Structures are given as structure tokens and as C-alpha cells.
Amino acid sequence: MRSRTQYPVNTKHIVIAIIVVFFLLFVFRSTSSSSNDHVSSTIPQTIIPKAVSDSFRNIQKATGCSPTCTKIPPALAQALIHYSTSTITPQQTIKEISVTKKILDKKSPCNFLVFGLGHDSLMWSSLNYGGRTVFLEEDEAWIEQIKKRFPMLESYHVTYDSKVHQADSLMEAGKGSECTAVGEPRHSVCQLALKGLPSDVYETTWDLIMVDAPTGYYDEAPGRMSAIYTAGMMARNREDGETDVFVHDVNRVVEDKFSNAFLCEGYMRKQEGRLRHFRIPSHRDDPSKPFCPSE
Fold first, then answer.
1. Is 245 helix (H, G, I), strand (E, B) or coil?
2. pTM of the predicted protein model
3. 133-172 pLDDT tens trace
4. Closest Cα partner for 210 from 254, 244, 257, 255?
């Protein structure tokens, strides 16, 4: 399995600081514009939150950054321009995003797997600057559309056999021994395991996994049952260490029940709004370890 690549700490901190400042400005502007039912094309200097500018200055001091710091890479510059000029709000709120960002602050550059390709994908890739961020998407047409705009994003098409209306039967199937045994998902006989992902996805050790797809808001949609289960098994099957797993839209029945059942309430570290954060350790070094820890 592949290990993360290390990059200079100062560069990482500077890049993260810049991304966060511009993203907070973007969210602040979107919020202000929505409340006034009007979208402005510029951000007056007077409305920049003091906390944002103070935070950026503090990080500059901590990293020893000066006005002569090396310019940021073109890919990051594109991300800054995109989010500072876009009027489309990402799927997650600033508080929800901050939960994952806090972990990325500690672990990046790292391996980050995201189920879903959306308006926040460029942000996730940028926050993991120097690492590898992979997106798994169900809609081929959407992948092609995003590739034209952001060719630097690494994404793959994924097909799902499940339907939301099958959630109850899949939950029962997931209780069987073939689904609780730790192993590589692509070789599993569990009905919930995703077996058609690119080989490289199975062979990479993921430090973070975000489940924000596939579609799951109507009965005939594929739902996130298999994505949640597979994310949990990838975490348990890593050689050692632990994986931070995030599930969005836990206000919905499937995301709520399946994250608690297969990522385990005992592994949950935080819930913010519609986002849950789990930290799942490797189970390979201890075959007797229970699927879920005792409450």
C-alpha cells in the first residue's frame, strides 16, 4: 500500500492559510448576498471579517512568511480565483467544512478519498495540497464537465447496484459474518461491499475518506449504503494506524443508520450539523477486535 509523501511544513501552512482566507471570504460573501437577495460582484474592504485577517496574520508570523514568499502554484491560484468569484455555495456549511479542515491541518499532505464530485471538490484538493485527493463519481457526464473546468482533479466513474428502497434489507445483510469479517472489499462476498472500484483505490492506504455521494434523496437513487460500508472496511483493513471517515447528510435515514451501524457510534468523534466524523483504527493487527467497540 502507498504511503503519504512529505513536503515542507512551512509551505503547507502557508497554502492552507491562503485557501482558508479566500474560502471564508467566499462563504461570508455568499451569506451576506443571500440575506439581501442580491449577489454583489465585489467584496468591499470594510466587510472582511476581522477574525479572518487576524488568523491569516497569525499564521504568517508562525511560519515566518514575508512579502517575498515564493508565489503559490498555478493550481492553487486557480482555486483562489474560483472561490473568490463564484456565487455557488458548496454543499457543506462553513462549520461542517471546518471539521474536516481541522483533520487536514494535521494530516496533509495525505491520501484523501472522496465519494462525490461537486462544487467543493477543488477546495478539498487544495486543502490537501501536496497530497493525493481522489474523487469517485456516479455521473459520467458530470465528470467530463468538471474535467474541462478543472483538469487537475483526479476522478473516476463508479457504478452502484443498490437502491435507497433496498436499505432495510441491506442493513440486515450487513449483520452477517461475511460482512463483519475484516478483509479487502473487492474480494468480499458481502452484498454491501463495492467491488468495482479502480484497483488503485483498493491498494492505497487512505488517511481520510469523505462520503458525500452517491445520490440518496429518493427511493430509486443508489443511496450511500455501500459507500459507507466500504469506507469503514477500507479503514479497518489498512495495515496499521487509523482513518478519519466523514459522512455528510446524516439528517437522512440511510446516512444516519448506516454510519452508526458500520462506522460505529463508538468510533464517532464529532457531529457538526449534517456531518459526522469517525476515527476508525486498523483491525488487521488484532483479529479478535470487535467490529464496533463496546459503548
1. strand
2. 0.77
3. 999 999 999 999 999 999 999 999 999 999 999 999 999 9
4. 244
